[in-house]
Amino acid sequence: MARRVAEHGEADLPWTMAAETMAAAVSPARGYALADEAFALVEPARTGGVVLRTLVVARQARGRGLGRRMVEALAGILPGQDLLIAADTPEDLAPGFLARTGFERTAIAQFEMELDLSERVAAAFDEKKERS
């Protein structure tokens, strides 16, 4: 799978879809190929369903419906499962394809938090210095 993503994927794929990330994928992630021209990697979602991590169509085969056929094949292989696109997927990656194949935007419950460790490191250093 990783070799196919490296060979046929765009050079600027997000890190979550890059060949190096695909090479590190382990069970329960599963890779699928269609006619050796379309490739997908899926993994179970924590909330149920299956996350489509990557779907790549060989450059010479694009525009022939292989991406759609791969989604249909996944529906047959994974009956009754929802096929999800992760929230960290860039919105502009393939909006036309996603809409044409029936993907719909959903609300997400996601937030981002930050902890500035530099203050803690400085405080710990000062505390250690005082004890010396």
From TrEMBL:
Gene Ontology MF terms: acyltransferase activity, transferring groups other than amino-acyl groups
Enzyme Commission number, as recorded: 2.3.1.-
Record's keyword terms, sorted: Acyltransferase, Transferase
Name of a matching Pfam family: Acetyltransf_1
Keyword Transferase in annotation: yes
Chain coiled-coil ranges: none
Stored InterPro entries: Acyl_CoA_acyltransferase, GNAT_dom
SUPFAM superfamilies from the UniProt entry: Acyl-CoA N-acyltransferases (Nat)
Domain N-acetyltransferase residues, every copy: 1-132
The protein, known as: GNAT family N-acetyltransferase
